[in-house]
Structures are given as structure tokens and as C-alpha cells.
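Submission sheet (multi-component)
Chains listed below:
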Amino acid sequence: METPDLIGPASPLGYPAPYWFLALFKVLGFTCHAVPMNLAYAGLLLALLLRASGNEHARQWAGRLARQMPFIVAWAVNLGIVPLLFTQVAYYQVFYPAMILMAWPWLGIIPLLTLAYYGVYIYAAGFRLGGPGPTRFKQSAGWVSALLFLAIGFIFTSAFALMTNISAWPALWQQTSVAGAPLGIAHSLANPTLWPRWLLMLGLALTTTAAYVVVDTGWFAQKESGAYKQWTARFGLEVYSAGVVLFVVAGVAYVFGGWPAELRQLLFTNPVFMLAAISAGLPWLLILAQVRQGAITQGLAMATGLGQSGVLALNAISRQLAQNAELEKYLDVTGQPVQVDWSPMILFLVLFAAGLALVIWMVRKVLIAVRGPEP
Amino acid sequence: VGIWWTIGLASPLATETLIHTFVFGWAIEYVFFVLEVAAAFIFYYGWAKLEPKTHQTIGWIYAGAAWISLVLITAITAFMLNPGAWPQHRSFWIGFLNPQFAPQTLARTGGAFLLSSLYVYLHAAFKIRDAELRDLISKRAVQPGLLGVVLAAIGGAGWYVYLPESAQAALAAASVLNVLLALLVALAITLAAMLYCGPYRNPGWISPGFAILFFASGLAAVSVGEFLREAVRKPYVIYNVVLGNQVLAEEIPGLRRGGYLEGGVWTRAWVATHYPQVMSAGKIEEEKLLTLPAADQRKLGQVLFQYHCNDCHAADSGYSPVGHMIRGWPRARILSLVLTPEEVRFFMPPWAGTAAEAELLTEYLVSIAPAHPGGMYYGNGR
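Outcome: structure written.
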């Protein structure tokens, strides 16, 4: 069976906006989602490990992150829908079939995420200020959540890997269907890109966690001791370095072990990939500078956070380019008919800007309440 | 969030149609979701930390954003029931401001007010020890609760008036919907009576047991209402646009000419893989289908069943199993059902295949239909 036969016809409605607009919001949404998602993914696990075996500062940091974790997970879930929405608009011809082929693992994300979210609340409740720390039950809830986040990450990686691995569809479908109707239990574990992609995301998540350690110390940990702040700078550098190592190792395995030659060619000819590969160097250098000067400053912490956002954005753009290149021989997502709905599009952009301004206003009010009025 | 997972799996064609029509409606909804999440956290954790006026403003931002997200999503679900003139014009605003939009927004707003009041009672019954304060809360939460019942009743009436004719007919014809509609009305009246007799006239009645019963009744009313709203759409997922079996209504004439198996990407691929002898130049030759051995015809009939019927019906056991519905039917009657299901039940989608494919599906249905139950006395001698 020729695999292009399994891709359905284009929607008669066409795209409601030019492809670049959909891709822009998909990438922007994913970048915004990646920050809290990475903290839930790697940060919670790290906090649990340090809480169990770390020194006083490590335990202090673990408590700080655990208390913030309910916010972080709420944002990760909420912002995750934006890229999912735009993926469905632009990639519907491959998104729905892939998700139907692995429907049960894909649907399994919802109960797993619900359990993980409750687990995070239970774990965080153990860190009430002045309290004795989490009980064994609350710690167990934290561990369950951390493992569930890893499992959810694996299912996501698997689903999106299957979305572009169209050549695997026929065999998976034939093996897991009744009279041609998919049972939804396909899982392409043999996909050579699957494990490296998952580890690559874990590496990236570690670097984001490290950058957040610095941002948290620089901006939100004024009441903590100087010794704690020095420790966090060193800790941030260690975690960032470990994340970069994992990112590079998994990245090499992903590109050289999983990608076909033509996709590798794209990697070496498109500067965005190169930039994405080396971009982690900037936040690493910024953290190193703060370790050297013996203190985390607000300016450098902000620069570290922005630098890491840039790393995530470049990786999201690279992933987008690679995704389109993987699909190219089956489907041209950029060449679909477009029927722009201008008025709702403009309304969305206006409300997007206004909503952002309102969120900034609310956060500013909180900062004033916490720190006192500006001079 | 979970709804994105379920709708894409349950009805990808309808989701694709909705998402291409209303992507900016959803994008706007997410702007308000972000506002909601930010405002909710700040409102909760900023208690006694923010200036009272700012704190209250943030509370209003939360409430406003939550209500606007209700309005936005209601417009889309209302569109599914009655898209108005959208099929002719295909414009965002014509679809968004559909005939069901205002009634459903009113009904949902009412439902939200009602459930909020009932939740206040639940919370007060369990958490507030001071009887005087609990009574005060009980009395004050009555007005939004009663307003909710009134809005839901007005919205519900509007919902009925602006239902397509087939949906009104489904409501009258399907016994399960008759029962549920009666249950919904009974629950709404009971809740209004409970609000008046309980918290309004006798605030002291708010005990944990009463509050649980109250809240459960509210949840039951909302669930029944939502089920009815979904059920009356049959046979469409989007009225007159997408049928429940993932076929666009406008595709049906073409599928009847060219074949359902040929028209579907996955069905064609299945036939090409398993029955290459019926393929010619990459296309299924309809006339060859009935030359296959009987077992293969049944197998292809099963493929047709899985794609054409299985969205709503199980085969021989499970949800709404066809096997039991056609128990003991002669072959000719089954074939007639396959060819004109919409004449047998107007809320069934029409047949979207060729005559040869109808024969294949009939072969399969005959094979899964049990015999007429034995031991039944019809007055024709013992």
C-alpha cells in the first residue's frame, strides 16, 4: 500500500488564515507552553530527588519549587491547548489519523494528567510555610506525579512522532484493527526517533529548570540567605550543564540515528537548526557569569530567562521546519487553499494584546502588594 | 481540556469543520482562559494582601473572563445544533450568531448561576460553623439561584423554539428523550421549590445532607440538559453539514455513485490490500464486489458496518446493537433498512454507498442477527 493513500483530502473550507500565521501562533504557543511544561517535566523530579538526598539549600529550593508547582502545572495545561489548536488547524490531515491509531494511549493523557495534577497539589500542601514538611503520603503523591509527567511526555512524543512517521501507519493499522477499523492501541515503539526525542525534551527541560532556578533566585527569593543564593547559582550551572549534555547526546542520536539523509541535509544547510543547537550556550554563559561573580543579579537573571525562552523558541521553530520536511513527500501543508476570515482574526489580535496588557497589570499589582509601592 | 481529546477522536470530521470555521473563536476563548487562570490565582492568593478595591477588580476580571469564555464556546456548540444560514454563506459571524446562540447562552448562564448557588450551600454546610453567618449566606445565595432557574427556563424555551424541525420531532418520538425532558422539567421545578422553601424561607435547613442533595440535583439537571442538547441533533454532529457517521451531507450523492468503500481513504486502502482482485487502476470496481466468495462479501460488509454504522451502533452486543434490533428479520427487510435507513427512522443517516455495497452490508447484518426469540405466544395456537 502506498502511504499517501492514507492521507485524506484537504478540507473544502480551507485554512482560515495564511499558513505562516497558523505556524507563528503554533510555535509561539508551544514556546509559552514549554516553559511551565519543562518545569513540571524535569523540575518536579529534581525537587523530589533533592528533597530526598540534598543538603539544606537543596531542600529549601525543592520546597520553593514544590509550592509553586500547582501554578506551574495550571499554566502548562492551559497554554498547551494553544499549539494543539493550531496543530489541528494546519495539520488536520495527519493529526487525526495518527491520534486515532493510538487513541487509547492518547486519551490516557487526560486521566494521567488529572492524577498528576492532584498529586502535585497534595505534594505542594506538604510545604506550607512553617510546617514540618511533606508526610510520606504527600511525598509519594509527588513521586507519582513526577513519574506520570514523564509518562505523559512519552505519550506526547510518541503521538507527534507518529504524526509525521506516515510510512509506519499501514503496518500499525493492519496489526491493530478489526475489519479496517482501528482499535486505537497502536504504539510505534520501533520508531528510531522516539526515544531520542523524548530524551532531547528531557534535556531541554533540565536546562529550563536550571534557568528558572536563576530567575526564581534573582526575582522572587529576596528573603532567602546569601548562602542560598550562591548555592542556587552553582546548582543552576550544574543542572544546565547536565541538561545540555543530555540534549546534545540525544540530539545526535535523534539526527544521526533517526533522520533520513535528506532531513539531515536540511539541518546542515538551514542556519536555524545550527542556531538552535548552539543557542543553549548563551544562558549557560550567563549562569556561569553569575557563579563567577558570586551572586545572581536581577538583570542577569532576567537575561538568563529571556535567553532560555529564546532557546525554546529556536527549538520550536527547528522542530516546525523538521516536521514540515518530514511531511513534505506526502503533504504540502503550506500550499493549502486559504479563506481568511479577517474580522475574527483582527478581533483575536486586538483581544490578545488587550488580554496580555491586563495580565501584566494584574501581575504588577501583585508585585506591588508583595514588595510595597514603587518609589 | 479533555474535550479536545474526545471530540477529535469521536468525530474528527466535525472537529475539523468546526476548527476551520471557528479557530479565532477558540483562540479568543484561550485569551480569556489565560485571563481566568491568572485572575483566579491572583484573587485566591492575593486575599488580604491586595488592596480591597484591586482585589475586587480582579474578582470581576475573573468573573467576566469566565462568562465570556462560556459565551464563546456556547456559540460553537449552538452552531452544531442549528447553524442557521451558515451552509449557504460559510461566514464566521453567521455561524457564530446562529439561531441557537442566544437561547443557549441564556440557559447556560442560568445553569452557571444555579450551580454556583448550590455550591455555596454545599460549602457553607460543611465549612461554616457560625449558624448566623450560614443563614445569612443561605438567604443571599437564593437570588442568584432563582435567577439561574428563570434564565435556564427562558433559555430552554428558546432552545426548543429554535430547534430544527427534526430535532423537535426527535424529542417527541424518542422515548428516552421524552423521559429525560420530563426529568429535566421536574428537576428544575424541584430545585426552584427547594430554593424557595429551603434557604429562602428556612435558612436553617442547610445541613450537609440537604446541601449534597441540592447540589446533586443541580448537577443532574445540568447533565440531563446537556445530554438532551446533544441527543436531539441526530443524525447530525453539525446539523445539515456533518453526519454522525463522519460523512459530509454534501458528499452523499457522490458516494452513492462512486461507492462508499472507494470514497473513503481508509476503506479503499483496506480493499486494495485485502482484495486486490476487485481493484483496477487504483479504483474499486463495484461490479466485482458481488463476485467475491460469500465469506469475503461478509467481511467487506463488516468493513462497511465499522465505518458507516459503528459510530452509533455496536454489532451484536454493546451500545445500541444492530444485531438485536434486527433480530429475526428476513433478508429483504434488512436490505430495505440498509438502503433507506432515514425512512425507517428519520434520525438515521441515509445510506451513502452503492447498491452492491448495500448487498455486502446486508450479508454481514444477516450473519450477526440472531433468530427471533423462541417461546413467544402470539395467539396462534399452543
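Remark: Chain B has a mean pLDDT of 93.
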